[in-house]
């Protein structure tokens, strides 16, 4: 398979693995939760002041008013902190865009994130790597490696490890991917679609590094045909293909490759001639690519005497 074909396959996989839609959904959910939080906070403040005024009028002491003022300040500080973090997430979401961005847009948005990446801001690092992985997975890995994985929110650290592991897997660097995958704490990821995507990455790393049984058990928790997993089905299909091959379950492997082909034939190119790919996968993927006309069939030379 030509090198250009592999580059195209990686670009297609990056496009279909783009998590911008997931992040947009997560932001929408966060906005709704913040809206509810603001209403609860406002109701709490009103209730506290009503009680404080009641005690003040009954006891003639200003202590209840001081307490109410202190609680109001604390609630206000909490609301400000939540709103500030949500604003930063919205800004990053707007900069990330999606897979439809052209190269000039990506370059401009990447430049806008540079200063925040230099400061070690995890969200900015993720956003910049998301923009870079469409054209240069190595550059995206370099960006992700700037994140300090010893501190930060578990959810964000899981996403950074997951993206790094996915890029290593796409490049055939299984050992590096396995090390990162083993540190991903799936139970710390409440969003089901994000957890499914990370589980697919973890399962692929496990299957390709000698642990396909546990990979299969993990994948059985998620049905790629369900609508809620629509945006992460490519990673789930890939993991199922590798798990099937490494368990010599040819039927399961073929089903996963068929599902991938149904999304995009180019997704099969990475299995042909890629590093650390099981021979069964390579053989079946090549057969499907030849049948689809994506690669030429080998020519048979006639020997004449």
Mean pLDDT: 82
Termini separation comes to: 33 Å
Overall geometric form: elongated
How does the helix and strand content classify structurally?
A: mainly alpha
CATH-defined architecture of the largest domain = Alpha Horseshoe
Major sheet attributes:
none
Counted by DSSP, the helix tally is 13
CATH top level of the largest domain is Mainly Alpha
What is the domain total for the residues?
2
Helical coverage, percent range: over 70%
Query: Uncertain runs with pLDDT below 50, 5 residues or more?
Result: none
Q: The CATH topology of the largest domain is what?
A: Serine Threonine Protein Phosphatase 5, Tetratricopeptide repeat
Q: What's the helix-strand series?
A: HHHHHHHHHHHHH
Total number of beta strands: 0
Radius of gyration, Cα only, in angstroms? Answer: 25 Å
DSSP strand content: under 5%
Task: Pick out its properties.
13 helices, Serine Threonine Protein Phosphatase 5, Tetratricopeptide repeat, single chain, mainly alpha, 305 residues
Short summary:
The protein is mainly alpha-helical and 305 residues long. It has 13 helices and no strands.
Written description of the protein model:
It is a single chain. The protein has 305 residues and is mostly helical. The protein has two domains: 3-18 and 98-292, Serine Threonine Protein Phosphatase 5, Tetratricopeptide repeat (Alpha Horseshoe); 19-97. The chain is built from 13 helices and no strands. The protein has helices at residues 3-16, 20-59, 63-96, 103-118, 122-132, 137-144, 154-170, 174-181, 192-208, 212-219, 233-246, 250-263, 279-292. Helix 3 runs parallel beside helix 5 (122-132) and helix 7 (154-170) runs antiparallel to helix 8 (174-181). The protein is elongated, with a radius of gyration of 25 Å.
């Amino acid at each position: 398979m030509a090198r250009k074909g592999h580059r195209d396959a990686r670009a297609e996989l990056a496009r279909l693995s783009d998590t911008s839609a997931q992040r947009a959904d997560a932001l929408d959910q966060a906005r709704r939760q913040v809206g509810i939080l603001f209403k609860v906070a406002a109701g709490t403040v009103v209730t506290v002041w009503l009680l404080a005024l009641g005690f003040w009028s009954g006891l003639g002491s200003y202590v209840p008013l001081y307490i109410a003022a202190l609680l109001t300040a604390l609630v206000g500080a909490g609301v400000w902190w939540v709103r500030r973090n949500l604003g930063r997430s919205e800004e990053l979401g707007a900069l990330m865009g999606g897979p439809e961005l052209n190269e000039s847009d990506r370059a401009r948005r990447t430049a806008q994130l540079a200063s925040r990446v230099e400061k070690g801001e995890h969200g900015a690092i993720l956003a910049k790597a998301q923009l870079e992985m469409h054209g240069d997975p190595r550059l995206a890995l370099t960006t992700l490696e700037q994140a300090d994985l010893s501190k930060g929110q578990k959810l964000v650290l899981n996403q950074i490890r997951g993206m790094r592991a996915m890029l290593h897997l796409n490049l055939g660097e299984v050992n590096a991917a396995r090390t990162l995958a083993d540190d991903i704490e799936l139970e710390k990821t409440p969003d089901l679609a994000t957890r499914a995507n990370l589980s697919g990455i973890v399962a692929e790393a496990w299957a390709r590094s000698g642990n396909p049984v546990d990979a299969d058990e993990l994948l059985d928790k998620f049905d790629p045909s369900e609508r809620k997993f629509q945006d992460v089905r490519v990673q789930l299909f890939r993991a199922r293909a590798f798990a099937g091959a490494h368990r010599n379950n040819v039927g399961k492997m073929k089903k996963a490759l068929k599902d991938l082909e149904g999304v995009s034939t180019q997704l099969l190119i990475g299995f042909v001639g890629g590093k650390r790919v099981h021979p069964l996968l390579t053989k079946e993927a090549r057969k499907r690519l030849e049948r689809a006309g994506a690669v030429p069939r080998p020519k048979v030379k006639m020997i004449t005497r």
